[in-house]
Amino acid sequence: xxxxxxxxxxxxxxxxxxxxxxxxxxxxxxxxxxxxxxxxxxxxxxxxxxxxxxxxxxxxxxxxxxxxxxxxxxxxxxxxxxxxxxxxxxxxxxxxxxxxxxxxxxxxxxxxxxxxxxxxxxxxxxxxxxxxxxxxxxxxxxxxxxxxxxxxxxxxxxxxxxxxxxxxxxxxxxxxxxxxxxxxxxxxxxxxxxxxxxxxxxxxxxxxxxxxxxxxxxxxxxxxxxxxxxxxxxxxxxxxxxxxxxxxxxxxxxxxxxxxx
Amino acid sequence: xxxxxxxxxxxxxxxxxxxxxxxxxxxxxxxxxxxxxxxxxxxxxxxxxxxxxxxxxxxxxxxxxxxxxxxxxxxxxxxxxxxxxxxxxxxxxxxxxxxxxxxxxxxxxxxxxxxxxxxxxxxxxxxxxxxxxxxxxxxxxxxxxxxxxx
Lengths: 261, 150
Known about the structure:
The structure holds 2 protein chains of 2 kinds.
Chain A: H1 2-12, H2 52-56, H3 58-78, H4 80-91, E1 102-105, E2 113-116, E3 121-125, H5 132-151, H6 159-173, H7 177-183, H8 195-210, H9 215-231, H10 246-252
Parallel strand pairs in A: 1-3
Antiparallel strand pairs in A: 2-3
Helix pairs in contact in A: 3-4, 3-5, 4-5, 4-10, 5-6, 6-8, 6-9, 8-9
Chain B: E1 4-5, E2 16-17, H1 26-37, H2 39-49, H3 56-71, H4 74-97, H5 117-122, H6 127-136
Antiparallel strand pairs in B: 1-2
Helix pairs in contact in B: 1-3, 3-4
């Protein structure tokens, strides 16, 4: 398989520069009885003690936080994708409370957002998701995880479940042609059906960044669940092309499936 | 199955369709048809599926929609509704068949579990907290603008 070949090739030769998102911060805590949940990507949540220098930088922190929260509010009010996701969650019995379920925090520079399944909260990284577009991407991606958690017996410690929800999020919220091209998952020579490669590699990266498993195990999990999870497009219903009307059209047909407020 | 039930015998009365709400505004069908056949659309189809998809159903739906809108053609409306039901079935098929996980019978019980107290205290005067209260109607809305009227 094209995708697997590329990955085994890359694991043989060491890369000259690290890909972003593969530089883990040192593990600070091991929650849940000693099983390493993942890398500490959310330092503020672990209440680190602050140096005096860090105290001086707080003014900028707060400005970033306010800007982030403003962007979140704007997305909730105007973005068709976010509104569709919120409608889908509400009609599935899991209404979103924007203060309880969304938090703007400072995080490790390798991530732009995440979903904390322990507290059931979306974390938007105020230092990385700095404009409305990026915030929209984060919110849509994480709300897909929440939607899967709301409707299904999703166990985040089950690697198959994790792979499936990441495949769906990559499928629906990412992987336009341009982003796939920049990641090296497609080119003008192997263009046909290469969307799948983009989704697989993005899902793999996401799985590896939240679970301490070997690359092989993660690849196996992604490949195992791929056929079923790639076809499941709920609640958005289509793969969005960037800079097109697709998200408005997806929002407009949401009522046919009960995804309206 | 789509049914029709006329509420009275008057022939000038518009016949009522049970699933009429499934008929979208006609320009939506036209837009979907145009998007399906556009260069960008075709490229995207090739990117995802490896080949072009058949767009003719959108055109048929558009024609039926226009017939229903303008002439109240029942046959066209029923065909359109059948097509919508079929489209819905196809879209939900993959979702229902996704058995990587089991479906819940009710939402998770910990959905709204309260956050730790320190977090709640931290959130007390934040922008999102205020906007949340406004959205729920607990406090009156404020004008969120950077302008000030001198």
